UniProtKB/TrEMBL annotation:
It is found in: Cell membrane. Pfam families: ABC_membrane, ABC_tran. GO terms for molecular function: ABC-type oligopeptide transporter activity; ATP binding; ATP hydrolysis activity. It is a multi-pass membrane protein. SMART domains: AAA. Residues 28-310 form the ABC transmembrane type-1 domain. The keyword Transport applies. This is ATP-binding cassette, subfamily C. One of its GO terms (cellular component) is plasma membrane. Keywords: ATP-binding, Cell inner membrane, Cell membrane, Membrane, Nucleotide-binding, Transmembrane, Transmembrane helix, Transport.
């Protein structure tokens, strides 16, 4: 399984700026409000320092009361400014997250199915839930707080410099160790959190597949194997979590120790300066209080740097979803006609391991071609190439002279439909389930489509086209009904070419017969390529292609192939008794 790509650092940085583009006024307002709040906060220690000096010099009580009142007013002003600062900041964050979510949904919907299948739905599910909400928290909470706290620290240390430059320099004593350990931590944190994210996605993928395939797991007694594979993934996630925990266990203690040092040194140096009359005792108290006040925002900066790291790692994973979308999408010209041509097509799921070795095939519009062959011969792979879900790494598969895989996916689905055993009923009404195949279809069109595929269950629905369907709905469709729903969608989409990949193979015989009758109604007037597991499908086709080991070994009408006496003839004889 190849995971979805992850954006590199430069792209992540560029896109972070993009995320805040158009928000310059809001960003400036947040910064101004927070800076003003921080400035108001600076007044309290200075005023307290003044009170200390006044008490020492025996100043009047009324003056001390005024100073105390000024402290209260400054604190109130700070509170009001902070409230509005946070309000604007959070709104800004919410808007940015909403934009990010919209972009993510667009990108995820643009992903070719082949990319999602290869990456595994767990990876996409993890990125759309855990990672998007992690980025959300970062933008909404972490970035504003980081900006605010960082500016508070600068202002507070700046204020100590204003009291006396020597005290300012002393106040910086704890910074080298904080900066050093932060650099050490940041270098290691990003890859460690990326590894943690990837391990979590892998575990989600394994658990989801096990839960989805619970019946198969039970039927084939695979529970032991699934538990082992789950345990391996849990261990991997545990190891990656330990790695990030190890980083934190060095980072935080060093930082905590570095907070205490500057205050102690400021008090010692301040005492020496006060003895020489360079500063007053009040100044020393104010400087120590300012530094004490700086601990809280500094602590927040460091704590949130860690969260920001997680956010950046998640953002790189969210952005990576966009890289799974091939760039040439939508640029291919519209196909000239309905002819399908396959020329020397080679395809490999893993580099160097071709499963199709140079396929040549021409399909006339309106022709019915059956593809037969042993399991693993490459029939489904060829079907995926013909439907444009995959592109050959060598040779070409074209529709009307245009490479099928390069046609805009929405346009392609209008022209070519791949019908497989999978038949998904989406959560929504029956109308919703039908209308995405043809958004302009009227209720009458939908009813005709349902009737044409024999979906007589429609008459029993309590609310007709408005009946809710899908997981959790009161009315559940059985496999055959769901397959008929899928076929009704095809009638509405009206593609000129249908590729049937064992569409009825997984159904029980009665259901399969019902579905095949429905299928027959859909096939009329279209080019049909059917992967045939029952040879009567092959007999009824205009031509039969025999696929073995990724190569077409026989091609002709049923009668021609039976007369030729090759592999197909042997298969036919053994099947026909
Ligand atoms: N997603 C995939 N990743 C890697 N290898 C794959 C994938 N799908 C199929 N293969 C391999 O490609 C080869 C052709 O598989 P394919 O499913 O096309 O054969 P098939 O003729 O349709 O078989 P069946 O009749 O059993 O469905 C097989 O060796 C299979 O293991």
């Amino acid at each position: 399984m190849t995971g979805l790509p992850v954006a590199d650092r430069a792209t992540t940085r560029r896109s972070s700026r993009d995320l805040l583009r158009g928000e310059r006024t809001a960003v400036l307002t947040v910064l101004l409000l927070q800076a003003a709040a921080a400035a108001a906060a600076l007044a309290a220690p200075r005023l307290l320092g003044a009170i200390v000096d006044d008490v020492i010099s025996g100043a009047a009580m009324a003056r001390i009361d005024r100073l105390a009142l000024a402290i209260a007013v400054c604190t109130l002003v700070q509170g009001v400014l902070l409230r509005y600062g946070y309000l604007v900041g959070y709104r800004l964050g919410e808007r940015a997250v909403a934009r990010l979510r919209e972009r993510f949904v667009r990108r995820a919907l643009d992903l070719p199915t082949a990319v999602v299948e290869r990456a595994g739905t767990g990876d996409l599910a993890n990125r759309s839930s855990v990672d998007v909400s992690q980025v959300g928290t970062t933008v909404r909470d972490v970035v504003p707080i980081l900006l605010i706290a960082a500016s508070q620290v600068v202002l507070l240390i700046g204020a100590v410099f204003l009291i006396h430059p020597v005290l300012g320099l002393v106040a910086l004593a704890g910074l080298p160790s904080i900066l050093g350990v932060t650099r050490w931590y940041l270098r290691r944190a990003s890859p460690a959190y990326l590894a943690e994210g990837a391990a979590a996605a892998d575990l989600t993928e394994a658990l989801t597949t096990t839960a989805e395939g619970a019946r198969t797991v039970e039927a084939f007694r695979l529970s032991g194997e699934r538990v082992t594979s789950g345990t391996v993934r849990v261990k991997r996630q545990w190891a990656t979590r330990r790695a990030t925990l190890a980083l934190r266990s060095v980072f935080y203690p060093v930082v905590e120790a570095s907070y205490a040092v500057p205050i102690a040194v400021v008090l010692v140096a301040g005492g020496a300066l006060a003895r020489r009359g360079a500063v007053s005792i009040g100044d020393v108290v104010a400087a120590a209080l300012l530094l004490q006040q700086a601990i809280e925002p500094l602590d927040r900066v460091l704590q949130f740097i860690e969260q920001a790291q997680r956010g950046v790692a998640s953002y790189a994973r969210v952005l990576g979803v966009g890289f799974g979308v091939p760039e040439q999408r939508g640029v291919a010209p519209a196909p000239g006609d309905e002819r399908i041509e396959v020329r020397g097509a080679r395809f490999a799921y893993a580099n160097g391991h071709d499963v199709l070795h140079g396929i040549d095939l021409d399909l006339r519009p309106g022709e019915r071609l059956a593809i037969v062959g042993p399991s693993g011969a490459g029939k489904s792979t060829l079907a995926r190439l013909l439907a444009g879900n995959e592109a050959p790494h060598h040779g070409a598969v074209t529709l009307g002279g245009v490479p099928v895989a390069e046609i805009d996916p929405a346009e392609r689905r209008r022209l070519v439909a791949l019908v497989t055993q999978e038949h998904h009923v989406f959560i929504g009404t029956l109308r919703d389930n039908l209308s995405f195949a043809a958004p302009d279809a009227t209720d009458g069109d939908m009813l005709r489509a349902l009737v044409s595929v024999g979906a007589d269950w429609y008459a029993t629905l309590p609310d007709g086209l408005d009946t809710p369907l899908g997981e959790g709905a009161a009315h559940q469709l059985g496999p055959a009904d769901a397959q008929q729903l899928a076929l009704a969608r095809i009638v509405l989409a009206d593609p000129h070419t249908l590729i049937l990949d064992e569409a009825t193979a997984a159904l029980d015989p009665t259901t399969a017969r019902r579905t095949e009758r429905a299928l027959a109604a859909v096939l009329g007037g279209r080019t049909v390529i059917a992967i045939a597991h029952r040879l009567n499908t092959a007999r009824d086709a205009d031509r039969v292609a025999v696929l073995a080991d990724g190569r077409i070994t026989e091609l002709g009408t049923h009668d021609e192939l039976v007369d030729a006496g090759g592999a197909y003839a042997a298969l036919w004889r053994s099947w026909h008794g």
